[in-house]
Design a protein that fits this description.
The structure is a homodimer. By secondary structure, chain A is an alpha/beta fold. Chain A is 44% helix and 16% strand. Chain A folds into three domains: 4-47, Orthogonal Bundle (434 Repressor (Amino-terminal Domain)), CATH 1.10.260.40; 59-158 and 290-320, Response regulator (Rossmann fold); 160-289, Rossmann fold. In chain A, helix 1 (4-11) packs across helix 2 (15-23). The N and C termini of chain A lie far apart (76 Å). The interface between A and B is large, with 47 and 47 residues. The first copy, chain A, binds a DNA duplex through helix 2 and helix 4.
DNA sequence: CGATACCATGGTAACGATATCATAGCTTTA
DNA sequence: TAAAGCTATGATATCGTTACCATGGTATCG
């Protein structure tokens, strides 16, 4: 391992001068700079960022903690984070909690040990333990996609209530009166908010008595499972609103397996689009969240806070949702 | 920030004793152990792994460098790597090269700076620069999925030649005689191997004169593009063999856009399955590689090498491919 | 022309942990 | 009972870098 001392010796300068050249801090004459640079390439010197970070107390590393890395929605967020972070010279550590609270806390420990400068968190629960842990260790946190009650952090999310309202309103306008919502876990803000939007739309249409609310989790298997339950009712709904893409896929699978056609027999709308490169024939009517921008804005906020450019109070950024009408919602019903 | 010194002071011992308790190295009496542990929890002490790694020269960190993080095939590999690594106490840094040689080399620098213990690499090119760079910095490398000529490393991959042969043979057995292959970049071993397998099957059937070989890249857009080219021929093929899942999707899209039915008008087979939770109705006949096991085995090999449990010579692990026949290949033709 | 500012460079200490060696009491063994 | 081995603990040096302070030369200014 060649160190900064080896380079310094070869270039005939002090280590600190090499450091200045590498980091472009302080002064260095053109001539010294060149001598150092040739020494670096001749020796194939690679700075040791562990030592650097230990001394400087900055790792230039951010962590992205999310709940389901297999979901393209989060993969796209990750892209947004990665691109934005690397523009500012940060690297990103990705962590997958699988929607587990203990997994999340376990990762929090590891990340603090690794001295990450900041964390972008998609919380796996409504519990504030993880956030408080980070904050007590002076690690700024930005929440993304989901919020947590009674916590002081920056947040980047979409207006799930409004998105859900619009989707359900669309179904009502098409003539549906028996509409079910298949949602995620009750403790997750987005799962709740989407149910709230659903209720708003029903209430407005005088259908408050027809509520069919199912909570579960944001997975295909659970989507299938919830669809089994709701379609087994004596008078099953004519339309389903699914709270995310995987629930939509699971529900659609159950409907097909039951010999029901979508949208002819049952209409389907849901949150979160699938990425173009994974889909042959876009089918789902969805409320599409700007995942890439969510990652981007979240990272920007975090970096601002790290570099002191952020205001004292926490910010909440709410990005717009786009309703994309495709085939699964069908035409006017009845 | 509370340090190991603070803990030591509180527990009335030397820092090194705290270190021993934390790491379970050396001796410590039950009583001391307890005093240290209560001091740790009382102070909320978090060890600084930067300092630890700087001194011990081990980061317990592996890097997974892959070419396309949006491709489920690689996402699943990543899962295999993650699970295996964390079982042995390693954390994983994920890097996405987007199939770019320069991106790959750039990441190599960063990873060396971060002092990763080892690297699992899906090479973006047939060039050995990156591997040699790692090796010259004493960082062991395991290649996964793709191999590189003239390089001494462990490799975990599948037999692409055989998988391609079997898929194309299946098409021939169904009666097809004009079959095209849409492959990835010429420099990538898997792209080449799959063409080789295709050629083998044709030659065996006495169809060597009918070869239709298209190289491109492993993306949906390129799959579409290559399909445009091949279907524009005066006597277009009656079957396509696509070298990966994204090419398959792109090709299928073009066929649908051209009003052609699959498999009735054109049959389609390809490499790499799509994950169940992303698909409603499995359609593609594929050669499925055991992605999870590939990640797993690759990581095991790497860890063995790090802990000195590996033999001197490099190992090449070749995992079996499963041919899954579904609808896209159709029934007997003509 | 002395004060002030900027440029260029270096010495020393410190970041927070562990490797290495040392010490000393106690137990086992021949 | 002396040698050897185990248990329990600590002192010191060091990993590779940068923060901080210091030095001296040259340019600028009132």
């Amino acid at each position: 391992m060649t160190t900064i001392h080896d380079v310094a010796k070869r270039a005939g300068v002090a280590p600190i001068t090499v450091s200045r050249v590498i980091n472009n801090t302080g002064y260095a004459s053109q001539e010294t700079r060149e001598r150092v640079e040739t020494a670096i390439t001749e020796l194939g010197y690679i700075p040791n960022v562990l030592a650097r970070s230990l001394r400087s107390k900055r790792t230039n590393t951010l962590a992205l903690v999310m709940t389901d890395i297999t979901n393209p929605f989060f993969t796209v967020i990750a892209r947004g984070v990665e691109d934005t972070a690397s523009e500012s010279g940060y690297t990103v550590i990705y962590c997958n909690t699988d929607e587990s609270e203990t997994g999340e806390y376990k990762y929090a420990q590891i990340l603090a040990q690794k001295q990450v400068d900041g964390v972008i968190l998609v919380p796996a629960c409504s519990n504030s333990k993880t956030v408080e842990f980070f904050q007590s260790n002076n690690i700024p946190v930005v929440l993304i996609d989901r919020s947590i009650p009674d916590v002081e952090t920056d947040v980047v999310r979409c207006d799930s209530v409004s998105g859900a309202y619009q989707l359900v309103k669309l179904l009502i306008d098409l003539g549906h009166t028996r509409i079910a919502v298949l949602s995620g876990p009750r403790e997750i803000s987005t799962a709740e908010d989407r149910v709230t939007g659903y209720r708003l739309a029903l209430a407005e249409a005088g259908l408050a008595g027809n509520e069919l609310v199912y909570y579960g989790s944001f997975t295909q298997a659970k989507g299938y499972d919830l669809a089994v339950q709701v379609m087994a009712k004596t008078s099953p709904p004519t339309a389903l609103f699914c709270a995310n893409n995987f629930i939509s896929i699971g529900a659609l699978k159950l409907l097909r397996d039951s010999g029901l056609r979508v949208p002819e027999d049952v209409a389907l709308v849901g949150f979160d689009d699938l990425p173009v490169n994974m889909v042959i024939d876009p089918f789902f009517t969805v409320a599409a969240q700007p995942a890439y921008e969510m990652g981007q804005r979240g990272t920007e906020l975090l970096i601002e806070r790290l570099t002191g450019g952020a205001p004292d109070e926490c910010q909440e950024v709410i990005l717009p949702i786009e309703i994309i009408v495709r085939k699964s919602s069908g035409l006017a019903h009845f």
